[in-house]
Amino acid sequence: MAAANLEKLAITTAPRVLVAGAPLVGKSQLCQVLTSSEAPRSGSCVPWTIQTKYYTTRVEVCEENVPNVPCTQPEALVLVFNLAEPHTFDLVQSCMRHFDLEAVQLKLLCGTRADVLLSADYSAGNVETSSQPAWFKIVTDWSVQNGVEFIICCPHLPALDATLTLDGDKQGVARVMEALQAHEWPYLKVSSGSKLYASTDGTRNGAVLGLDCVSMDGTASGPQTRQDANELEYGQQKLWQVSRRGLTDNAVGEEMQQHDRGDTESSHAVAMLDGLDLLMEEMKGQKARHAMLSDDERREQAAVLTLRMLEVLGLDSEESCSDDA
Question: Under a CB-based contact definition with an 8 Å cutoff, are residues 146 and 127 in contact?
Fold first, then answer.
């Protein structure tokens, strides 16, 4: 009975986004802008529905002052410090020991008050690392070393925030939102007609869209037609293969798309564009992590991304080689 209750709790508990940092660094304002609702009080959480054209999911956003950080591992960790007060970054560093960083799926470092990095001319929101003080370079290096994406933002000045870039890369609250939306959340519910892969068991081995997904209350609607039932059975077989053979979502999705012979050319085109969108969003967050890799490791990662691109386009490496020949 106890095991069953724990299993039910795991299914119905929303993934947690923990927003942590020193007091008065802008955590509440960042939460308010992201969720479009009242920010949670320190030590409390508020529900938030993330809705994109691909999926909808429910999470809880929790705000916490350092060093009062809970021991619970969050799904996403958003560390916040004030760029106008660089010493607040030291508190962010000190709280990292509370977490198993390998277990935290998404890690962001947000520097608020990005307006202090700019000249009096707010019309130009581009920030160059090379023109910043030494402490700023320390922050960027620390982010790379710890696999954390560093984002500068200015939630108290929305017009400026919308124009922010760092070394040419998009910044601001919009980039924070993009990173959260591009994350593969457990228990997400996929939008009708999308080709995204959805998790049905809380893991990241998902079924192709069109199969039923477990909702936050642990229920799932059954197949409505014989074709739906056949697709559901086929999807379950693919999920079993994922768990037993360690196949990637893309590999299973490729096979399942081939299985669905009835798709029209237009639906394949839509699926390809969806896949490219997701791949590009994922690549944005990998820039910092790849900076610490050796040349050989970077080449290997580039090869992996190339293969994934070919899969999204409906090609494989053998076809590519034959075309080159």
Answer: no
What is the Cα–Cα distance from 84 to 118, expressed in whole angstroms?
Answer: 11
pLDDT grade for 15, boundaries at 50, 70 and 90: very high
Count CB neighbours of 243 within 10 A. Answer: 11
The answer to whether the bond into 67 is cis (omega within 30° of 0) is yes
Q: Where are the domains positioned within the chain?
A: 16-182, 189-324
CATH superfamily of 16-182: P-loop containing nucleotide triphosphate hydrolases (3.40.50.300)
In this structure, how many other beta carbons lie within 10 angstroms of the beta carbon of residue 302? Answer: 11
pLDDT in tens, 60-110: 999 999 877 777 789 999 999 999 999 999 999 988 888 888 889 899 999
Higher-scoring residue by pLDDT: 257, 104: 104
**106-155 confidence digits (pLDDT tens):** 999 999 999 999 976 655 689 999 999 999 999 999 999 999 999 999 99
Q: What value, to the nearest 5°, has the Cα angle with vertex 36 and ends 212 and 42?
A: 100
Beta bridge partners of 65: 21
| Enclosing H/E stretch for 107 | strand 106-112
Strand, helix or coil for residue 197: strand
Instruction: Please give the Cα distance from 140 to 135 (Å, whole number).
Output: 9
Give the residue from 117, 63, 65 showing the smallest Cα distance to 86.
117
E strand or H helix at 288: helix 287-290
Taking residue 52's Cβ as centre, other Cβ atoms within 10 Å add up to: 17
What's the rounded Cα separation, in Å, for the pair 207 and 237? 10
Give the HSE-up count for residue 250: Cα atoms under 13 Å, Cβ half-sphere: 19
